[in-house]
Amino acid sequence: MSRLKILITGSNGLLGQKLIYGLRNNNQIELIATARGENRVSEKTGYVFESMDLTDAAIVKSILESHKPDCIIHTAAMTNVDACELDPDACELQNVTSVKNLLAGCTTSHPHFIDISTDFVFNGEAGPYKEEDEVAPLSVYARSKVEAEKLVMNSGLKWAILRTMIIYGVTDDEQRSNVIIWTKNSIEQGKEITVITDQFRGPTLAEDLADACIQAALRKAEGIYHVSGREVMAIIDISIEVAAFFELDKNFIKPITTASLNQPAKRPLRTGFIISKAERDLGYKPHSLKEGIAIIADQLRKQGRI
Ligand SMILES: NC(=O)c1ccc[n+]([C@@H]2O[C@H](COP(=O)([O-])OP(=O)(O)OC[C@H]3O[C@@H](n4cnc5c(N)ncnc54)[C@H](OP(=O)(O)O)[C@@H]3O)[C@@H](O)[C@H]2O)c1
Question: Is 116 close to ligand 1, i.e. is its CB under 6 Å away?
Fold first, then answer.
């Protein structure tokens, strides 16, 4: 039986790295990992790597035409929400033009296209959200992700869109921080951190999201899926949970409201997802935050970082 050929974009990113580790030794799958520049993942075997900057239409077309994947998992994006707000052209290029280039390169192989999107497509006034809820993006980043979703939906390909939020995990290259690592490192270095009290999200373990992507590929899932952790909590409570787990002093965590933080990009206050569709169709079973932090601690220990 021929193996399912999966091409992933953004393989140096947090989700991208977890997909490589989840797929590279799966004998049902032939994996092509692609990223901008060099491969920064430590394990280099069990898959083919191609350097592919998604903003270069000619490169994208030639790589897609030479590999003819059965499935594309598109994880790459400009993910810094404030940077997107300050540079809308760069955001449009990375998050929208890149998708146009990918779709334009799919004319010969018609792959199943799995796009990763965000809770930020919603305005945060009516969370937790289900897949059919109306989108109402508040920022440049959020509008770019909605635009990308529409391109995928209208592509004529079989598609799935997995929306997620506040992904946490450990990468090989220590380049990618997140609320867990940031809280731990800051307190350990004796630095006070100010953490938001009035934004509520469901933190998502990167491995859980990668598993959902893999199941969506294997099961050829179609439509929108909400994929996040089950617990919806204030961001400050995530930091408090991290401090408790690593037995760090919670007094370093100082509360701040969204209004007083005054970040360039507007954020939805209360999102959270109803994840029953992903549980039913993808067999999705997310870890609790406590379990997720324990998994991270284990990985940091193995990397000699604690
Ligand atoms: N992180 C979150 O909390 C969160 C929440 C909701 C949704 N999402 C979505 O989930 C997906 C994965 O997020 P993540 O946390 O894994 O992101 P990430 O760690 O920031 O990784 C994104 C990757 O995309 C790559 N990339 C950007 N522009 C590219 C281009 N032109 N060509 C090729 N690669 C390019 C980046 O490359 P470099 O490494 O070279 O910069 C980076 O490795 C994204 O679509 C994001 O919008 C993330």
Answer: yes
- Write the DSSP symbol of residue 120: G
201-260: pLDDT as tens digits: 999 999 999 999 999 999 999 999 999 999 999 999 999 999 999 999 999 999 999 999
The shares of helix, strand and coil residues in the chain, as percent rounded to the nearest 5, are 40, 20, 40
Distance (Å) from CA 89 to ligand 1 centroid: 17
Residue linked to tokens 């324990």: 294
Residues 216-236, buried b or exposed e (16+ Cβ, 10 A)? bbeeebeebbbbbbbbbbbbb
Q: Which amino acid is at 268?
A: P
On whether the CB atoms of residues 155 and 103 are closer than 8 A, the answer is: yes
Cβ pair 101, 60 in contact under 8 A: yes
Per-residue pLDDT tens over the stretch 39-95: 999 999 999 999 999 999 999 999 999 999 999 999 999 999 999 999 999 999 999
Please indicate whether residue 165, judged by its CB atom, sits closer than 6 Å to ligand 1: yes
| Sign, Cα dihedral of 187, 189, 190, 191 | negative
Q: Is the CB of 37 under 6 A from ligand 1?
A: yes
Instruction: Domain 4-171+203-228+271-287: give its CATH code.
Output: 3.40.50.720
Residue where the block lists tokens 């998708």: 99
Neighbours of 33 (CB within 10 A): 26
